[in-house]
Amino acid sequence: MLASSETRIKDILDDIVRSSPYIKAVAMARISGVTIVSVMPTYVSPEHVSAMSAVMVLLGERIARAMRSGELNQVYIKGDQGHIVLTSVGHEAVLMITAEEHAPLGLLFIEMARAAQKLRKLV
Q: How many C-beta atoms surround the C-beta of residue 14 within 10 A?
């Protein structure tokens, strides 16, 4: 991937973070689990999160196929202190967003879908 693509990806991820005061972290990783770009707090290991995110999306795709639910749209994880949403970016990458507990999920899903559409053109 060219450095200019990484810069554009970083700009898109920064836009996601700026779009809502509820968003705590965002990352994009290759489906292999390697981090492409991340915007995360210092206490988070982007490499670990990227690897786990890729595995979760791959498992979600398998479950969706097994259950004949069509194409996987997103994987949603609810914790007692917030939300984690994962979505495929084409067949090459995964987008992960972490948001606070009171985040408006509808807006978060819309913002994530818009970002994934832009990111598909870059991977």
A: 13
Q: Domain boundaries in the chain?
A: 3-120
Question: What integer pLDDT is reported at residue 4 of this predicted model?
Answer: 86
Helices 105-120 & 3-19 angle (0-180, nearest 10):
170
Q: Could you give the CA distance from residue 3 to residue 23 in angstroms, rounded to a whole number?
A: 26
Does the pLDDT value for residue 16 go beyond 80? Answer: yes
The CATH number that domain 3-120 falls under is 3.30.450.30
Whether this model's pTM surpasses 0.85? yes
